Amino acid sequence: MPSDQPLQLSRLLLAALGTRLYTCHQNRMPRCGPVLIVSNHRSFLDAPLLMAALNRPIRFACHHYMGQVPVMRDIVEKMGCFPLSLPEQRQQTFFDQAAQLLQGRQVVGLFPEGAEPMVKRTLPETVGGFQRGFAHLALRAPVQDLVVLPVAIASDAEAVNAAFPLRLLSLIDPSEPLFSQDGWHPMVIYERVNLLVGRPYWIRPSHREHYQGKQAKALVTELTQQCYTEIHDLLQQGSY
Description:
Elements: H1 5-17, E1 20-24, E2 35-39, H2 46-54, E3 59-62, H3 70-78, E4 82-83, H4 87-103, E5 107-110, H5 116-119, H6 133-140, E6 147-165, H7 166-172, E7 184-197, E8 201-202, H8 205-209, H9 213-238
Parallel strand pairs: 1-7, 2-5, 2-6, 3-4, 3-5
Antiparallel strand pairs: 6-7, 6-8
Organism: Stenomitos frigidus ULC18
Keywords: Acyltransferase, Transferase
Domain Phospholipid/glycerol acyltransferase: 35-156
């Protein structure tokens, strides 16, 4: 069974920052079994928010550089995160790690927008394009009773500060082109935030049977678009 420490740390962090969290459709979150959480991403608080709102420890994939800095590495490990590998090894190691966690009937969290909304200021009601890795994982991983759950994080009130120069991160992880630009890494701290759970997408044996050739591409596109649309629509509801 996964440790409850990440869940406890998440609640403590949100309480210390005074973040007020409101959750809608929490009953859509399965109480047990493997779940792949897919969410939009603008703040370092997103992972703790999702754990606190859904009341389950979640193993999040995080950026490679977070596993390279000693103090940060300790924090992300205590939060249950697993840093991604360098680009040349990333795809296979990500699949192996995430599939193993799901086979252990744990919850895995992914932010398919990637790092861009974290390093560029974006509006709370917007969501960027989705990378398709999560859909390939869901359809390929040999996991029974897997649920893909889209979740929208809709900020209602927040403070945005300049944390540190982006080029500082390029010294730690030169493989990320976003870190080679000028400017500062923004730090979004939610003061009041709505978390809206979308409709679950169950991965059936028939999905995996058709995950080959042109059918595989169509299934990946369908799942990616369905999660994107669900989160986009929920953001419009939760941002007003």
